[in-house]
Amino acid sequence: MPVLTAGAGLHETLALLTSQLRPDANHKEDMVFLRDVFSERSLAYLMKIHEKLRQYEHQSPTPVLHSASSLAEDVAEELQSGPMSAEEKELLHLLTSPHLKAILSVHDTVAEKNFDPVLPPLPDDFEDELEEESVKIVRLVKNKEPLVTSTKNRTQCTGTDRFCRFITSLSLFLTGLVHVGDELREVNGVSVIHKRPDEISQLLSQSQGSITLKIIPAIKEEDRFRESKVYMRALFDYIPLEDKATPCQEAGLPFTRGDILQVVTQDDPTWWQAKRVGDSNLRAGLIPSKQFQESYFNGQYIAGLRRSFRLSRKDRQGSAGEGSDPGDPDFMTYEEVTRYQQRPNERPRLVVLIGSLGARINELKQRVIAENPHRYAVAVPHTTRPKKPHEKDGVEYHFVTKQQFDVDTLNNKFIEHGEYKENQYGTSIEAIRSVQAKNKMCIVDVQPEALKRLRTAEFKPYVIFVKPRVPEGRRRRSAATSPGGGDHGRLTDEDIQEMRQSAIQIDQQYGHLVDRILIKEDSVSACAELRGILERLEKESFWVPVSWVRI
């Protein structure tokens, strides 16, 4: 059998492998197929090209000259000046072929390191038309990227009847060459002052090569770079590539519920420009405005037009109730927020735990408080049940009569209340205030419905959604039945399905009110994670609604 040398190339190895393929009775078709593939001449050429590229990979070759194209033209002209031999005719044919001329042109471009497109000079009459500081000329070389126009009534800007037009191109709109409110006057010398957006889009799509735009800037240069201080928490998911309503999908900014968005401008009533806080990409993108998004929720847009949102209209009506309006929190789309850090003279923030089925949040709460009762405490609940001998009023419970409990309920003193074994139980607002007055952090676990009552500037609640780790797949059976299966104990498939559905339902209806999700693997790790969150709440700043700070 032939042996390859150490310096053998890929094409030699391929040739040797091909020669060794011998069809047998069991794999005849496979061997014939492989031999045919390996015998392809184009594959051998590719292997040789690969070897040459590997040879030059570490050598960093540099061009010898920068004018290979002109040199080829000189040689071709010299060859044509007299009689030619067969070899000279072949050389002339090669030098004048389009493919070789293109290769030599690329060679010269790389050698000169000049990769910028060459734009034609401006027309002579442009200088006469320009008014300094009032008109700017933007020139671009068109590629496959879409150029789209949008409009808004200019009356809001200048009091005239004209329109503010702007281009939402990924390369123009996001790089700062064109801004919202800029007025597009001409495209390649053609006036567009009285044209509709679709007519301008058609004119742009028909333009080839370089495009020259004459634009009237809408804002001063110094205002353009002024950093916006408006921050919004997104309360829904947005995928621009699935949104047919956006004027330019490529210029859209995708985000998920809970993301903090820095809104750069709200000049356009339909599409805002925004950046995601913490994103390495500093360019702003398009997001639907609050008004536009709420109009969609109100049913003013064709069903299916905005398919990028998680809940269908039917789902939203089921969770929020028939007849709800966009002003209701269930229809909130953005919430303006700001950074907030607790000051030494302020009462601690309220910590609210909500949990899905199987989370056992009361046990988690009691465990954290027992570790440090001087810093954390619970709001002592009210009850109508009789006091037991070892209990003290105001310690385990506030013991009240049923008549008093009913009066307090009618006066909305409870954030939530309910009945258990014919006795009434409830947690009052005053009980929370009593804990905070002692400069302790109050930790309450409530049903998710109570969040709307607690989300006030007084309490500034930090909401933690505790979800148990639900076993899945093959691991589910062993984790659900083994004694060491964490907090799950012995669970049936039906139990696990109910736990999963409970978490999904809470997330869909109340997830936009949650600040942190805690996945509970077991009591020990969950307790440690909760303790870390509480410690950071006292030391670090967090995003909270603006209304909680600007009172």
From TrEMBL:
Domain L27 residues, every copy: 6-60, 61-118
Domain Guanylate kinase-like: start-end pairs: 348-535
Domain (SH3) ranges: 227-297
Presence of keyword Zinc: no
Region entry Disordered, spans: 313-332
Family statement: Belongs to the MAGUK family.
Protein name: Membrane protein, palmitoylated 3a (MAGUK p55 subfamily member 3)
Organism annotation: Gouania willdenowi
Upper classification of the organism: Eukaryota, Metazoa, Chordata, Craniata, Vertebrata
